[in-house]
Specification:
Layout: E1 25-26, E2 44-45, H1 59-70, H2 72-82, E3 88-90, H3 91-94, H4 98-101, H5 109-114, E4 120-126, E5 139-145, H6 147-162, H7 164-177, E6 183-185, H8 186-196, E7 214-219, E8 222-227, H9 270-281, H10 300-316, E9 321-323, H11 324-328, H12 331-334, H13 340-346, E10 351-354, E11 361-364, H14 379-404, H15 409-423, H16 441-456, H17 468-475
Antiparallel strand pairs: 1-2, 3-5, 4-5, 6-8, 7-8, 9-11, 10-11
Helix pairs in contact: 6-14
Length: 482
């Protein structure tokens, strides 16, 4: 491999012996600043393996994605309501936000709101005066947060305000990673805003409250955030995982053979294992002080820096994870490879890619223990757990209500369909928000509830009131997953 300022490695290097086990050999394009001659040839080992690696699923980490998918509608509707001055929205206007809420046309927004009675509540407000010849309702149906949900949202907002300095440091570190211009577009930063724990209005407040660290500038691609001052204290990479403990007992002494720490239950091929061992022996490349343009394309050093950049971004995330698509938005700014997902799958000792949902999620493995729990829990996650408990309480109330209204469900459905048809507005503004991630977890959960409900009703025509299956199913209703 060839790096600017250092002599090229030959095929006799200890790192690439034997060559077939590390990948295919090719001549890579060197930086323009590297001195070359007509009688020299440089050989670089590509970091891609000879065959695609099999992705081994980890249920302990996948459960976090499933939990987030079930809370997606609650989080998005809560964001919409909090963005309004009075924190409520008319249902007629809410139908224009179907794409943002990830609800296809056949799905009922009213039914989705009624699924969370402890989080959202419906109420009516009088309509503004209309001309005498106009016809319409005297009041319109609106939705808002319940007092309990509003209190949790207020607590979360206060915590984010108290963490303003920490959030500003995260933005400054992201700008320091964006080499060489140290500039990031604000629409791209919005993709990582939720994962980093930034407030909703960070583009108008946080970005302008720290002029000594960064500033907002106008570019040909839109408004961007540019670095003002470099902080040497923040330009330090995360410590290497698996540092050696002080020698005490025999079990604490370092191993005499080369060892690679992998997550529990993961088995990889010997060829891949030896590649990761050799990759670990390469000295770390600081993602802050190294310009990706100075490294040869597809070299070990370039991949070492790219892995370091992803570790830094995931290390700043609240839950030590984000969507792979969010990282691809910064491929050019952070100097990441074009096949970013392949690089993440190639390094299971650092990252785990979950296939749950419509878009893949990447985890920082060192941020979770063997049981799949976060090693360090942020204060914002405590607030999210309170919201999750509130949603579970609503699920319990909804089950009890279904049992009480067992014989009147048909009338309730007819009334709901009439309201849905009345409030739906066909004005061609359904694409007001860009379509985000859609998932069928809500559909599967709704079908599961309906199937359980149908099994609970007795069959009066046949004279069968209860059976062993229905009795056991009824007893498990309170202890099942929400």
């Amino acid at each position: 491999m060839a790096i600017a300022g250092t002599p090229p490695l030959s095929l006799q290097s200890h790192f690439i012996h034997p060559p077939p086990k590390l990948g295919r050999v090719s001549v890579a394009t060197l930086p323009k600043s590297y001195p070359t001659s007509s009688h020299s040839t440089f050989v670089v080992i590509k970091c891609c393996s000879s065959s695609p690696h099999k992705l081994v699923r980890d249920p302990r980490l996948d459960k976090h994605v499933v939990k987030q998918n079930r809370m997606r509608f609650v989080q998005k509707l809560k964001t919409l309501l909090l963005s309004k001055p009075k924190h409520f929205m008319p249902i007629q206007i809410l139908y224009k936000c179907r794409s943002f809420l990830s609800l296809p046309k056949p799905r009922s927004i009213l039914s989705m709101i009624r699924r969370y009675p402890t989080v959202f509540e419906l109420f009516t407000v009088p309509t503004p005066p209309t001309p005498s010849h106009a016809t319409g309702p005297l009041s319109q149906l609106c939705v808002r947060l319940t007092p309990a949900a509003a209190a949790i949202a207020k607590k979360e907002s206060d915590i984010k305000k108290s963490m303003a300095l920490s959030s500003a440091a995260k933005l400054q570190k992201l700008l320091m990673l964006a080499s060489p211009y140290h500039r990031l577009l604000l629409p791209k930063l919005a993709h990582l805003g939720t994962d980093l724990g930034l407030p909703i209005n960070f583009r108008s407040r946080l970005c302008n409250d720290h002029p000594d660290k960064f500033k907002v500038v106008d570019t040909s691609y839109g408004r961007a955030l540019e670095l003002v001052s470099w902080d040497p204290k923040l330009a330090s990479a995360l410590p290497s995982r698996g540092e050696e403990k002080p020698v005490g007992l025999i079990v604490d002494r370092p191993l005499k053979f080369k060892h690679l720490r992998l997550r529990k239950g993961l088995n990889i091929k010997r060829q891949h294992y030896e590649y990761l061992i050799k990759f670990k022996e390469v000295p770390d490349v600081c993602p802050y002080n190294t310009n990706p343009a100075d490294l040869a394309r597809e070299s070990i050093e370039a991949e070492k820096r790219a892995c370091g950049v992803v570790r830094e971004v995931l290390g700043m995330a609240v839950e030590k994870r984000t969507l792979v698509d969010h990282l691809t938005h910064f491929r050019k700014e952070f100097g990441l490879p074009n096949k970013l997902r392949g690089m993440l799958v190639r390094h299971p000792e650092m990252f785990y890619v979950s296939l749950k949902g419509q878009r893949d999620t990447v985890f920082l493995v060192e941020g979770y223990n063997d049981k799949g729990a976060l090693v360090e829990k942020d204060e914002i996650l405590v607030i999210k757990d309170e919201m999750t408990k509130l949603v579970r309480e609503g699920k319990r109330l909804r089950r009890e209500r279904k049992r009480e209204c067992m014989f009147t469900e048909t009338n309730v459905d007819i009334q709901e369909d009439e309201e849905e048809h009345y409030y739906e507005c066909e004005d061609g503004l359904d694409d007001l928000f860009q379509l985000e991630d859609t998932s069928s977890d809500d559909d599967e959960e709704e079908e599961e509830d309906e199937n359980n409900y149908k099994k609970l009703i007795w069959y009066g025509e046949k004279g069968e009131f209860w059976s062993a299956e229905t009795d056991a199913l009824l007893k498990n209703q309170g202890s099942g997953p929400w």
